[in-house]
Amino acid sequence: MSLHALLARLLRGAVAVSALVLLVAGTFYLVQHGQEPADFSSFQPVSPELRTPAAIVAAVGRGDAAALAQCGLLLVMVTPLVRESTAAGWFLRRRDLLFAGIGALIAGVLLLSLLLAR
Amino acid sequence: MTILQFTAILFLGALLAGFLGSLTGLGGGIVIVPLLTLVMAVDIRYAIGTSLVAIIATSSGSSARFTREGYTNVKVGMVLELATIGGAVGGAFLATFLQASWLLTVFGVVLIGSLAVTNRPNRLTVGPLEPDRLTRSLRLNSTYPDAGTDVPYRVYRVPQATGVMIGAGALAGLLGIGAGAFKVLAMDQLMHMPFKVSTTTSNFMIGATAAASTGVYLGSGYIDPAITFPVVLGALAGSVVGSRVLVRTASPRVRMVFSILIALVGIQMIVKGLSG
């Protein structure tokens, strides 16, 4: 399969899955929190359990609707990381080590930026 | 206002923002941040975090189509992403130290600058074109489809474009925008890539650039699911509709009207930022 076709299929699937998770999680969130007052005019950082991938996954396990919605957003955020890793793998199979390395480097930076979030 | 009402208004607003962003060619971020700050009275720090996630979604959605059609130069995109993601991480760290009023003012200035770049009347000529060793060694020259045939093109001045990309990445990370106008400018004017290849490759890069800075915003508590989930869903739907309408109508007059409206929004953001 060509790189263009592979990335197009991957991106289409990732967007569809993220949108579906967000739709379900968002509905669940509105059922739990829909009647609370909305005021975002002054900045208050969101709670710590919504600020790192590990904490978000742990909160989803407890059935927290906000964490489930944040998990859907996390899927959106990791899509470019998955895309770069896939491109790196494609170049590696064709022994294009330079572009396999560039793809792996970009994926590594994206992964680190998410894992070091705190 | 309850969260439910807020979500419904945000979804409709983001739908419009995604539609306008796609129609004007400026991208969703440059409409989403003013929508949240000026219309919905949301603090700009939440707005930037929200916008970054929304533009990853819209960029991924439209990249799927453009990449399949064979316009995107994936290798050029990956090489330049090395520069944009570095700039984006730096820009995001800077944003966490700047006051909201400064962010509003800088956003307004960049918004008007993006409009000027996008609506420039003629292609500029920047110096003579010379064979580029880096382009050859990285094998960046490619082809794009046009009327059933593959048209070859050459790529020039990768090092100079890399410098512009660091700046574009920093603006993206600082303000929660795609900075596509500046990326296209570098690829079209400096690297002399065909315009359609420049715009689609820029779109391809926007997702990774935004993703590089979301870690900083996520960790700093700027990404609130109550604001972000309706905006992502609305912007995604709006950009799909906008890109289809754009293909059918593509009227310069429509673009000009929206561009003037966005310029007024930029002025309003500068005024709001300067007044504290």
What does this structure look like?
Chain A is an all-alpha fold and 118 residues long. In chain A, 75% of the residues lie in helices and 0% in strands. Chain A is built from four helices and no strands. Chain B has one domain. The longest helix of chain B has 25 residues. Chains A and B meet through helix 1, helix 3 and helix 4 of A and helix 1, helix 3, helix 4, helix 9 and helix 10 of B.
- Strand fraction of chain B equals under 5%
How many helices of chain B? The count is: 11
Shape of chain A: elongated
Largest sheet of chain A: none
Number of strands of chain B: 2
Helix content of chain B: over 70%
Estimated radius of gyration of chain A: 18 Å
pLDDT average of chain B, as an integer? 84
Helices of chain A, by number, come to 4
The total beta strand count of chain A reads 0
Largest interface (C-beta under 8 Å): A-B, 65 and 61 residues
Spatial gap, N to C terminus of chain B: 25 Å
Strand order of the largest sheet of chain B: 1-2
Biggest β-sheet of chain B: count, sense, barrel?
2 strands, antiparallel
Shape assignment of chain B: globular
- Structural class determined from secondary elements of chain A: mainly alpha
Features:
heterodimer; A: 118 residues; mainly alpha; B: 276 residues; two-stranded antiparallel ribbon; 4% strand
Write the layout of secondary structure elements.
The complex is a heterodimer of chains A (118) and B (276).
Chain A: H1 3-33, H2 53-61, H3 65-93, H4 97-115
Chain B: H1 3-24, H2 29-39, H3 44-68, H4 74-95, H5 100-118, H6 133-138, E1 142-146, E2 149-153, H7 158-175, H8 180-190, H9 195-219, H10 225-248, H11 252-274
